[in-house]
Amino acid sequence: MAHKLTVYLRLMRPANIVTSVADVLAGVAISGYFYHLIFTANSFYSIALLCLSTIGLYGGGIVFNDVFDAELDKAERPERAIPSGLVSKKEASYLGAFLLIWGIGFAFSYSNHAGAIAVAIAFFALLYNKVSKHHAFVGPLNMGLCRGLNLLLGISIVVPAINEFYYLAAVPIAYIFSITMISQGEVHGGNKRNLYIGGVLYALVICAILYFALRQAQWLTILFVLPFVWMIYRPLINAIKNPISKNIGMAVKAGVIYLILMDAAWAAAFGAIGVAVFIACLLPISMRFAKMFAVT
Asked: Which of 72, 161, 165, 199 is most exposed, with minimal Cβ within 10 Å?
């Protein structure tokens, strides 16, 4: 039983799931929810519901990625759980469906707005896994849309905030678009064009965070932005210098894991410094999972 649970965790990519929780917490911080939070036993119930929702949605989406790629992985990534025979395609499909239903259910248990966003996340995750990932432009855009909606899932904790900050979803869309572009050379190596595009999009994301931080005089945001810049650009520059599969894989892994620092910077930019610190503390947890289970 313990072995089977480990295999299921391999399918779900727990290091990545931690980053999705960071997205939601950043969205909650952007909404202003923490400004009015009274610290009681029930204070964090709503936040917990949304975090449980994103765990299911992200986990389910990742599992279905392996389900739809099962035949391709036999040739390119035979070590993965399905092609290696550790779990059947049918079992993985059941797990993915359970997780997506879990995610949608917890979102609706909070509000219809959160539930509608969760349904959209599940839809676009399946669309990416089945269809759009095979398109050079639409695939990265689709994947980014899932992350943008995940930020909105957190923002939806305060319904009026969705109308006020919906456009901020464009930032994680751009960020994940860049990572997905970079990852297109992960298996066979890649050309430098996609890597340069990724670097430019990273810069735009950083500028967006700094703009909001400066607009609201949240100077401490720089404490999260600087390590974020260092951690994502260092492996990307190595990949640009030598765009082989290993280097590109390291750049992709860094982009995914250190997204947590981007979320911490968002929380800081909107004045929730304590939340930013808490989000940043998720990084060693994600990194620990990354050593135990694959990220890409």
From this structure: 72
Q: How far apart are CA 182 and CA 255, in angstroms?
A: 9
What is the residue type of 66? D
Torsion of CA 166, 270, 122, 261, to 10 degrees: 140
List pLDDT tens digits, range 23-78. 999 999 999 998 877 666 677 899 999 999 999 999 999 999 999 988 887 877 88
**Coil, strand or helix: which one is 267?**
helix
Per the listing, tokens 């399918």 go with 11
Output the six-digit token pair for 288: 């620990």
- Please report whether residue 54 resides in a domain: yes
Residues 6+ apart with CB under 8 A from 142: 124, 127, 128, 132, 133
Question: Does residue 7 lie within any of the structural domains?
Answer: no
Nearest CA-CA partner of 292 in 37, 14, 81 = 14
Give how far the C-alpha of residue 183 lies from the chain's centroid of Cα atoms, to the nearest Å: 14
Can you say whether the dihedral through the CA atoms of 41, 49, 150, 176 is positive or negative?
Answer: positive
CA distance 267 to 232: 19
Which residue carries 């520059």 as its tokens?
237
Is residue 244 domain-resident? yes
Region of poorest pLDDT, from 5-14, 52-61, 120-129, 219-228: 5-14
The structure's pTM equals 0.92
Listed in sequence order, the residues at least 6 apart from 145 whose beta carbon sits closer than 8 Å to its beta carbon are 124, 169, 173
The four Cα atoms 218, 282, 234, 217 give a dihedral, to 10 degrees, of 0
Residue 295 domain-assigned (yes or no)? no
Q: What is the pLDDT of residues 64-117, one digit of tens each?
A: 999 998 888 787 788 888 888 888 899 999 999 999 999 999 999 999 999 999
| Domains: count for the chain | 1
CATH number at residue 242: 1.10.357.140
3-state SS assignment for residue 80: coil
